[in-house]
Write a structure and sequence with these properties.
Layout (H helix, E strand, L loop, with lengths): L1 H40 L1 H4 L3 E3 L5 E4 L74 H16 L26 E2 L1 H6 L1 H7 L4 H10 L1 E2 L10 E3 H12 L2
Antiparallel strand pairs: 1-2, 3-5, 4-5
Subunit structure: The system is composed of three essential subunits: KdpA, KdpB and KdpC.
GO molecular function, one term: ATP binding
Family: Belongs to the KdpC family.
Length: about 240
């Protein structure tokens, strides 16, 4: 009986010691080591890839897209459509899960795809103006017309074939922070006109904020819209 109690006590003691050692290693030392390495080698990424303006104020993260819309006439009207503020470069459409309907007291960032196929709403395999309302084809056609209208300026007309796919479709998350260089270039004349800047100035701004493929072969060239608009704001001193 005494041997049994003694063995049990020794096992409990060994288990408690193992628990204490593993808690210190896995719960204290390992997190501290990983945090220290991340802060030392990847400080920017470890802290959320923050973007700051010229005054040092954090304006967002380079990982999450933002919208640049004019203020609503009635902020409490959910039916009022948001209109883009055309003085800024515009991101991809955000057609994710829509507005937060779970708790309307809080404005949450909701991520998600439309889950509609490429031929959703197509007539005889093609997207035409006869596409049913609410289908992907109808959204793409409406978005394309808006892009052409918004970005055509006196002396510069945007042609339908110049509109890239990312200008009229959302990403899988709906929160893509980047646009293609083609879409950024398409917006140059409009941004220059709205901000009373020379087109060459804006062209250089886009070129300076165009990132190539990762490691030279992964992904596609891209332009981070928040970084670009932050630089634009500094240039216009607005």
């Amino acid at each position: 009986m005494n041997n049994s109690v003694g063995n049990t006590a020794r096992l409990i003691g060994a288990g408690l010691r193992a628990l204490l050692v593993l808690t210190v290693i896995c719960g204290v030392l390992y997190p501290l080591a990983v945090t220290g390495i991340a802060q030392a080698l990847f400080n920017d990424k470890a802290n959320g890839s923050e973007i700051k303006d010229k005054s040092g104020r954090v304006v967002g993260s380079s990982l999450i897209g933002q919208t640049y819309n004019l203020p609503k006439k009635d902020p409490n009207d959910p039916e009022e459509a948001a209109k883009p503020d055309l003085k800024w470069f515009q991101p991809r459409p955000s057609n994710g899960l829509g507005t937060n309907s779970v708790n309307t007291r809080y404005s949450l960032i909701l991520s998600g795809a439309t889950n509609r196929s490429a031929d959703n709403g197509a007539v005889h395999g093609q997207c035409t103006k006869e596409a049913a309302e609410g289908t992907l084809c109808a959204q793409v056609i409406a978005a394309k017309e808006a892009v052409i209208t918004d970005n055509s300026t006196p002396g510069h007309t945007v042609e339908p074939q110049d509109v890239p796919a990312d200008a009229v479709t959302s990403s899988g998350s709906g929160l893509d922070p980047n646009i293609s260089p083609e879409y950024a270039k398409l917006q140059i004349h409009r941004v220059a006109e709205r901000n009373e800047l020379d087109v060459k100035q804006v062209e250089k701004l886009v070129a300076d904020h165009t990132t190539g493929r990762t490691l030279g072969f992964m992904g596609e060239p891209r332009v981070n819209v928040l970084e670009l608009n932050t630089a634009l704001k500094a240039l216009t001193k607005s």
